Amino acid sequence: MSSNVRGQRFVLGLYAALVTVAGVAGFLTGTFVSGLSPPRFLFLIPFPATPLGFAAYGALTIALVLGVPLVLVVFVSARIDDDAARGQ
């Protein structure tokens, strides 16, 4: 197995782990902290002020915040590899 594939698996595994941790942290926050106001994903979509609502909010927020730059890095690196293969 090439180191490139192992590196991609590591990054995806780390991404999934961070999203999971954010979901668990949101669930624990919703469970043990009282008097919370409902979160709004992207300032538009309201979530209920329940443990599951906070878990979904935390996981989706981290997935978006980390996922968008990750997709951009993958896109740019593929473009650089293509340009290098063509000799440009």
Automatic annotation (TrEMBL):
The chain crosses the membrane at residues 12-34, 54-76. Keywords: Membrane, Transmembrane, Transmembrane helix. InterPro entries: DUF7520 (IPR055942). This is Cox cluster protein.
